[in-house]
Amino acid sequence: MNVRFLFLLIFAFHDSNYALEPSNSLPLPPQYDISADPLIPSETLMYVSPEMHAFVQTHTKPSDSKDRRLRTIIDAILDKNILGFTYQFDANLTASQAFSEAKGNCMAFSFMTAALLREAGLNVYFHSVKKKPSWSSFDDILTEEKHINLLVQIGLRWYEVDILPFQDQAINDISYLKDNEAYARFYNNLGISALVENNLPLAEAYLRKALEVDFTCISAWRNLGTLFRTQNKLTAAKQCLLRACSLNNRDETTYYLLAKTYRQIGDYEKSEFYSRKMDRHHRRSPLYYYSRYEDELSKNNLDDAEYYILKAIKECPDMHNLYYALYRLYAKQDRFSEMIDALQKAREVSKTDKFKKTYDDLLKTHADNVY
Q1: Confidence of residue 65 (pLDDT cuts 50, 70, 90)
Q2: Which side of the chain, N or C, has fewer Cβ within a 10 Å radius?
């Protein structure tokens, strides 16, 4: 059972110090028409379907203690003979969709489980898990991966509920996301998915929707900046990324993207400024090493590039994009066997069918060229 008791009594709201007050405008007016593909309304994200209501009624009784209701519902969710919920990394689903399909990513699991537990009368909050940053990159699109789970309050006791096994120590402070902050992350995820699929109008629509429900969503500002940069709308990209930086002035991903954007604008002084900020604050992070890899590769310093990408892989060996970067490096050097090894490793650790297929296609292309 993925539930653990947290032996502490402190509770605090999610809190941040912002350098700028939110405004009511975004860079550039909307550039899309989504009449044929309407967005998922926020009021449906936690909708409790009749089937979900019946599920709660079946597995709990009014006389049950809150502790018993918590454990009974979680057991029923995970039991293969009842709901049998399974984790799927790229399944961004609402609560009722996740229940109907019995699958989803951490966000879908959290929406569904929170809706069920609240239906059972429990106090449930979304929780942003603090862990080493993880990110994915493909075709020059960089996305940071964040994990979300649940906190359940029963009297003075707190429980943490997660679809994934606990790999860290119990948290030593309790802070939660407000519902609208969790909703913004959901829309941000849909925006990222559309961006990777190159559906730029839908990506922009969902990222703007994320900011509509939470104007302080750093990831949505950052990803909207990335979208504008892919469209060569560099002023708008810069404005979005600077906004993200104002919300968290120690965020390495934003530094990295600002450095790339200013370099693309031609402002090399500011590009170097943000590169130095990333160097100073995050010298041992995989993103720092990846940034150095890109710099050395652009200068054709292949030995140094290899040194930095291998350092990045050592820090985070489960990031497929790092092995893809290693593949690109070996391809420039015609190191065929090592190139294939890097591609195979990228496929092995990738989490989605889309990326697995991409790597399968590349491996097949190389095999066809050999034979």
Answers
A1: very high
A2: C
Between CA 107 and CA 95 the distance in angstroms is: 9
Q: Which two tokens stand for residue 159?
A: 């429980």
Comparing CA positions, the residue from 200, 247, 204, 199 lying closest to residue 224 is: 204
DSSP state letters, 324-338: HHHHHHHHHTT-HHH
On whether the pTM is more than 0.90, the answer is no
- The C-alpha atoms of residue 196 and residue 138 are separated, in whole angstroms, by 8
Q: How far apart are CA 287 and CA 278, in angstroms?
A: 9
Quick one: pLDDT band at residue 345, thresholds 50, 70, 90?
Answer: very high
Structure tokens at 131: 């862990």
Locus of tokens 């930095």:
308
Q: Flag the least confident range among 12-26, 156-170, 232-246.
A: 12-26
Ranges assigned E (strand) in 155-222: 157-161, 175-176
User: Cα separation of 359 and 101, whole Å?
Assistant: 28
CA 209 to chain centre: 16
Q: Cα 255–256–260 angle (5° rounding)? A: 115
Q: Distance between CA 258 and CA 135 in Å, rounded?
A: 16
Per-residue model confidence as pLDDT tens digits over 254-286: 888 999 899 999 999 999 998 888 777 666 677
Q: Which residues contact 280 (CB under 8 A, 6 or more apart)?
A: none
